[in-house]
């Protein structure tokens, strides 16, 4: 019950933060959607990092490390640290300049202008929304898992279960509803300013509490006199197949490097880039982001592989996927927090995990509302909506997408990590489009359509081949002679999209000269 009280107090604090941010709301569309371009370096760093560090990074990475071993860090974290910063530098600053100059709020606005095609919005809008929804599900499903594990024992008569790890805990459908409700309130009232403040606050919370969690769990599992000795003891006990990336082929490992390129096409990150006060504001995020990633990912991965050792207590047993005898990898982190720390500290640590989850949910909900209001409703009206009407439309769509996400999250998804990888693979496959739009004068409208359609067709083909994500270790196998090269599906999707974009652009009419002067004035 102590954990539940701490979690409720934390959620109430977030609601108050959103309500306070709403007192500074000027009433304009730009203020609600972009915080009037007022975000400085520190707040930009914290909000960008909080947005990219999701349940996928905490709950998902710990669970995947439990399943696949320490190689998960090399798969995602090391490459993400470099590629994310590269995207901030190469894409973020340039898009911020264009957004400030031409008044963009969404990606679709930029691509419509850059390609001189109104219909590109009708193609991109459903694709972007369709890829964000699984990303949202990652966060919402994880929040339900965390709430149930952390409140186990609070209501033994009301929520009985044969699994002692979750017996008496708040069921996921209630926990997910609580998280969706809190995020909805502070996004609805606070807009981008409330979201940026909440992200910064939550990033600080989950980074500090994450380090505390790591130290407490290491000391409890190791049982030695100091942290270093415990880390050495636990690491020495890790089974060989979990201590290396031996279970992954080289091509499988290196083709994972395509996944972090997804950051370049996240619509919510595009919106955060536009909130910057100046181009100078990007310096701190570019430098500090890789360091922050290391601080968060290393403890998560180590905790995941430590859970595979014989040093883990046998009682209570690890929580299982409902209706099966399979260990639920999504529940590893909250389970260890619950069983290896005190009730009060466990409550704070659970709040830290939920902070990481909510810091990405809020940005995604807000960006979808902004896209619907700007790219669909306002764009296709003869007379533009007033600022007040656009804010109303944005808020109404946010309510709708929160409700839809909650209903979809009630399905039983076994792997948060796997669901996230498929969502990120889709965004990664669109990276060639945004990069070419910013740096290649030869990109044509037809080339852009070819790249997008190729990406989505390849993604659908590979997703279906993986039994719609059910095959966790699915790979794209390339046979050359007697050798079989296993690759992550994102690699062929990314490369096919890039080839289609380039080839079609080379054989179709060049872009209008006025468009080139607008986007490449230095070479006009």
Describe what you observe in this structure.
It catalyses: L-proline(in) + Na(+)(in) = L-proline(out) + Na(+)(out). This protein is mostly helical and 524 residues long. The chain has one domain: Sodium/glucose cotransporter, CATH 1.20.1730.10. Helix content is 69%, strand content 2%. The chain has helices spanning 2-22, 29-34, 41-52, 56-68, 71-102, 107-115, 120-150, 172-222, 227-236, 240-243, 250-255, 267-274, 283-306, 332-340, 343-378, 387-409, 416-428, 431-439, 445-465, 490-507, 513-519, and strands at residues 476-480, 483-487. Strands 1-2 form a two-stranded antiparallel ribbon. Helix 3 crosses helix 8, helix 7 crosses helix 16 and helix 8 crosses helix 13 (283-306). The chain is globular, with a radius of gyration of 23 Å.
Structure in a nutshell:
By secondary structure, the chain is an all-alpha fold.
What attributes does this structure have?
Sodium/glucose cotransporter, 2 strands, single chain, mainly alpha, globular, two-stranded antiparallel sheet, 524 residues
With helices defined by DSSP (H or I, 4 residues minimum), what is the helix count?
A: 21
Number of strands: 2
Q: Kindly provide the radius of gyration, computed on alpha-carbon positions and rounded to a whole number of angstroms.
A: 23 Å
| Biggest sheet layout | 2 strands, antiparallel
Share of β-strand residues? under 5%
Strand order of the largest sheet: 1-2
CATH topology: Sodium/glucose cotransporter
Q: What CATH architecture do you see?
A: Up-down Bundle
CATH level-4 homologous superfamily: Sodium/glucose cotransporter
Domain module count: 1
Structural class: mainly alpha
The mean pLDDT is 84
Residue stretches low in confidence (pLDDT < 50, at least 5 long) are: none
What is the highest CATH level, the class? Mainly Alpha
Q: Which sequence of SSEs, written as H and E, runs from N to C?
A: HHHHHHHHHHHHHHHHHHHEEHH
Shape descriptor reads globular
Tell me the span between the first and last alpha carbons.
66 Å
Classify the helix fraction into a percent range: 55-70%
